[in-house]
């Protein structure tokens, strides 16, 4: 094979490789970007009166209503250890003394289940700070109730934030 034929074949092969690389690059560059929207933490779920609600069906957010650093995060971790699904954790807009569950629905099964994790928790009306059941812990809060309450029976039809698939 002569040098000129060998050079022509080499150039033809390299041109084909370059053309394939350009086509692959163009396809990758024009492909739509993946969606950056995370899947929703939960969806609204309605449980009829008389049905049980379990911890893994309830999303909970905890807010620090004190000057103690890390109180909301630590409390949320303890609730997750009991089976609840973590939603949000931050500082509360106001300070509270012990524990308050901020909800306009004190008979809601999810609210009652979360409240039973705390000794002396008060269910009070308050703004919706995060997703799921909103708990505000204050400076006098020590720890969760020793008894782990895994479920409650709904005393009324209850709608709450429930993780998908539960």
Quote the average pLDDT. Answer: 90
State which percent range the strand residues make up: 25-35%
Q: How does the helix and strand content classify structurally?
A: alpha/beta
Terminal residue distance: 71 Å
Low-pLDDT stretches: none
Number of domains: 1
Strand segment count: 9
Biggest beta sheet summary: 5 strands, mixed
Key descriptive features of the protein:
alpha/beta; two-stranded antiparallel sheet
Q: Secondary structure elements and their pairing?
A:
Layout: H1 3-30, E1 42-47, E2 52-54, E3 59-64, H2 71-81, E4 85-91, E5 99-102, H3 109-115, E6 122-124, E7 133-137, E8 151-153, E9 158-163
Protein name: LytR C-terminal domain-containing protein
Organism: Nocardioides piscis
Domain LytR/CpsA/Psr regulator C-terminal: 57-141
């Amino acid at each position: 094979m002569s040098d000129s034929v060998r050079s022509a074949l080499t150039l033809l092969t390299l041109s084909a490789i370059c053309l394939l690389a350009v086509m692959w690059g163009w396809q990758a560059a024009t492909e739509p970007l993946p969606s950056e929207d995370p899947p929703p933490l939960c969806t609204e779920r309605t449980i009829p009166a008389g049905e049980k609600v379990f911890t893994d069906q309830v999303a909970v957010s905890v807010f620090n209503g004190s000057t103690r650093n890390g109180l909301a995060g630590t409390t949320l971790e303890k609730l997750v250890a009991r089976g609840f699904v973590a939603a949000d954790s931050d500082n509360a807009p106001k300070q509270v003394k012990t524990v308050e569950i901020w909800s306009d629905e004190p008979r809601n099964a999810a609210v009652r289940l979360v409240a039973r994790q705390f000794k002396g928790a008060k269910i009070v009306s308050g703004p919706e700070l995060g997703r799921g059941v909103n708990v505000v812990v204050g400076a006098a809060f020590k720890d969760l109730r020793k008894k782990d309450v895994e479920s409650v029976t709904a005393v009324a039809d209850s709608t709450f934030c429930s993780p998908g698939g539960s």
